[in-house]
Design goal:
With 285 residues, the protein is an all-alpha fold. It is built from twelve helices and no strands.
């Protein structure tokens, strides 16, 4: 092939690649970069009702305690989803009955097919009937149960999709090398599905952290709000108050920084821990 034809082929592939990337880039700019830029600008500009200091006055001990409690609730809900979804997805992936798989997936993902509000009302009604009284649920445990009920399918589906396509040869080879079922699970299955596991954790944790309305429906305690509810309250007040809108932007920015900081710490610690573990294995194995 001549150099001219090679260049033309390369140019054609490059143009097709950019054609495929353009919609994603445009959506990212319009739905992520532009809104985040507006949030940052709104946080650091004085509003019509106050100063920049007034914008940031919302970050107080009460808000910090709400962020911490929301993080704890989201972590617990995500952990329970992992504990429930992983063995269930593994069992479905390893089973041979197509009809059974279809029915199990349909039942497990049924909450996706109904309205968010309908699901909350149904769960609240179930608890009220079980306890024999209206507004019977008090405490964060019911918020956690609601989050698990709502977001469990988003943990299950990525895991099932990957485990169902995992070559069985890996498992057979592991058994041939002398690994038992438990060791094969940790050495083969979990590493193979780590990307799906990370996707499921992200799809559950972030919505659970910033969830709205779940505590109001399922936790009748006086102090039942999570950080997402507070952001929404400030945003609603922002319809008539510029400083409330600025405070909602400030709170959203702080929460985003906490999430990004936590992600950065997790990635860094994972890489450092991996290097330390590999060095340990090199010197002791």
């Amino acid at each position: 092939m001549s150099s001219v034809s090679k260049r033309s082929v390369f140019s054609s592939h490059k143009s097709k690649r950019w054609a495929l990337l353009t919609p994603f880039i445009l959506l990212t700019v319009l739905l992520v970069i532009v809104p985040m830029t507006m949030v940052i600008i709104k946080s650091f500009l004085p509003s019509a009702d106050g100063t920049v200091k007034d914008n940031w006055s919302i970050i107080n001990n009460f808000i910090l305690s709400k962020i911490v409690s929301s993080l704890i609730i989201a972590v617990i809900a995500t952990a329970v989803c992992v504990i429930l979804a992983y063995p269930f997805a593994y069992f479905l992936a390893m089973s041979k009955g197509t009809v059974f798989k279809t029915l199990a997936i349909f039942v497990a993902t049924a909450p996706i097919w109904t309205s968010f509000l309908v699901k909350l009302i149904g769960l609240k009604t179930f608890f009220d009937l079980m306890y024999g009284m209206n507004n019977s649920t008090y405490g964060n445990i019911y918020t956690i149960i609601g989050l698990i009920y709502l977001y469990f399918p988003f943990m299950l589906m990525p895991l099932y999709s990957v485990l169902n396509d995992m070559p069985r040869n890996y498992i057979y080879a592991s058994h041939d090398l002398g690994y038992g079922g438990w060791k094969t699970f940790w050495k083969i299955t979990v590493p193979y599905s780590k990307i799906a596991l990370a996707s499921g954790i992200t799809l559950v944790f972030l919505p659970a952290l910033t969830t709205v309305a779940v505590p109001q429906f399922l936790n009748n305690s006086n102090d039942n709000s999570m950080i997402g509810d507070i952001i929404v309250q400030e945003g609603e007040q922002g319809m008539t108050s510029d400083i409330a809108l600025a405070r909602a932007s400030t709170l959203s920015l702080v929460l985003s920084l906490i999430i990004l900081g936590g992600y950065g710490i997790f990635v860094f610690s994972t890489k450092v821990g991996g290097k330390i573990y590999r060095k340990y294995r090199e010197h002791h194995v």
